[in-house]
Write a structure and sequence with these properties.
This protein is an alpha/beta fold and about 400 residues long. The chain is about 45% helix and about 15% strand. It contains 14 helices and 13 strands. It has helices at about 15-20, 45-60, 70-85, 90, 105-120, 130-140, 160-170, 195-205, 225-235, 265-285, 290-300, 300-330, 355-365, 385-395; strands spanning about 30, 95-100, 125-130, 145-150, 150, 155-160, 175-180, 210-215, 240-245, 255-260, 350, 370, 375. The strands form four sheets. The chain has a seven-stranded mixed sheet, with helices on both faces. It has a two-stranded parallel ribbon with strand order 1-12. The longest helix has about 30 residues, at about 300-330. The radius of gyration is 21 Å and the shape is globular. The structure holds (2S)-2-hydroxybutanedioic acid. (2S)-2-hydroxybutanedioic acid binds near residues 13, 34, 133 and 184. The site of (2S)-2-hydroxybutanedioic acid (LMR) has 7 residues, from loops.
């Protein structure tokens, strides 16, 4: 069957981790996949997660199937993170339907499959640049992909005017994928004045916003980061949100996420939920329980929730400190290129401006793994490796 088939290329992000593991260089550093590391270079299980698991070990009574859309307490928790604890019009009007999905990727794919059924002719508009897997997910669901300008490599800032002028031309019924916060890979987000304008434009033009919200809590904090979701909620229009607990709960391998479909009325939302469940049923039947049980246990126990927020803030603070150490380390080594924008970028990543040639040189000669296009996972830098990384980049740039 496979004799005449050409092998698929390795994944541009997760494939790097496979190559990294095989690398014999004792100094190797993985700055590829967006995975948080602590000062010891370890991706820790959060203490609040361990506490929740201890409780679950004693209290879990069954491994029977979850409902198709997941445990309702879990999906309520997701909605409270998205729309706020109190006074959420979306929640009280029952305008949102949430299904537990296997990770943010699973949420995007379920949303894509649902959209394809009811908007088969639509195009999906994706920012330039974007997370590489966005293209794959929406193409696999059968959509035609188009792009809108987003990040300007020259000015290292948002191309807001160009982006808006493209969004103005997008026809009703098309889908526009936006990053809820911590744009991957650029780390450059829409600001507080721009989000309402983008949401108002969606309402005016009738295109459907799909917010990929994989980094809630990694920008400013859980509340401020949901401004985009809030602005779209205020329009009363249809939109979609893909949530992930990989990063903010460190639940990478539990594949814990959710797809939320927001519509203008409770009746429409009921209909949306029925089709969401139908889509889930034919893809994976019903969700895996463990990650959702952890999230629900943490978010419904105030002392666990408090320690989650503390641990999340600690992760963010360490990343911010590493941004400074990285920028200062490069400046100290006489690198001419201006990397100061890295201090302003948000989330886990820095769009370093390193060329693909430099990225290959760093990998081949120094065992430093960076995603093509120059995206660096700042959360992979530690006090122990940042000097080596800065020295290696300086050497690469001074060749
Ligand atoms: C990333 O962008 O590195 C992460 O979201 C991991 C992934 O699945 O690509």
């Amino acid at each position: 069957m496979w004799k005449s088939v050409t092998a698929a290329p390795a994944d541009s992000i997760l494939g790097l981790t496979e190559a990294f593991k095989k690398d014999q260089n004792p100094n190797k550093v993985n700055l590829g996949a967006g995975v948080y590391k602590n000062e010891q270079g370890i991706t820790p299980v959060l203490a609040c997660v361990k506490d929740a698991e201890r409780i679950l070990l004693g209290s879990e009574q069954t491994k029977s199937y979850l409902p198709i859309s997941g445990d309702p307490v879990y999906t309520d928790c997701v909605q409270h993170l998205l729309f706020g604890e109190e006074d959420s019009e979306v929640i009280s009007s029952r305008r949102a339907a949430t299904a537990h999905a296997p990770g943010g990727t699973g949420a995007l794919r379920i949303g894509a499959e649902l959209l394809k059924e009811f908007k088969p002719e639509a195009s999906v508009w994706i920012s330039t640049p974007t997370w590489a897997n966005h293209n794959g997910i929406f193409a696999a669901a059968g959509f035609e992909l188009k792009s809108y300008p987003y990040y300007d490599a020259e000015t290292k800032a948002l191309k807001y005017e160009e982006m808006m002028s493209t969004l103005h031309r997008i026809p009703a019924g098309d889908i526009v994928l936006l990053h809820g916060c911590c744009h991957n890979p650029s780390g450059v987000d829409l600001n507080a004045e721009q989000w309402p304008e983008v949401a108002a434009l969606a309402a005016e033009k009738g295109w459907i916003g799909f917010l990929d919200f994989a980094y809630q809590g990694f920008g400013d904090d859980v509340e401020s980061d949901r401004q985009g979701v809030e602005e779209f909620s205020k329009t009363g229009c249809d939109f979609f949100v893909a949530s992930s607990f990989s990063k903010n709960f460190g639940l990478y391998n539990e594949r814990t996420g959710a797809i939320t479909v927001i519509s203008p009325t409770a009746q429409e939302t009921e209909v949306a939920l029925s089709h969401l469940k139908k889509t889930v049923r034919v893809c994976y039947s019903n969700p895996p329980a463990h990650g959702g049980l952890i999230v629900k246990t943490v978010l419904t126990e105030p002392s666990f929730e408090k320690s989650w927020r503390t641990e999340l803030a600690e992760m963010c603070n360490r990343i911010v400190a590493m941004r400074s150490a990285f920028v200062n380390g490069l400046a100290e080594r006489g690198v001419d290129q201006d990397f100061s924008c890295i201090k302003k970028q948000r989330g886990m990543f820095s769009f370093s401006g390193l060329t693909d040639e430099t990225v290959s040189w760093l990998r081949d000669n120094k065992g430093i793994y960076v995603v093509g296009g120059g995206r660096i996972n700042v959360a992979g830098l530690t006090a122990a490796n940042v000097d080596y990384v800065c020295e290696s980049i300086a050497e690469a740039l001074h060749r």
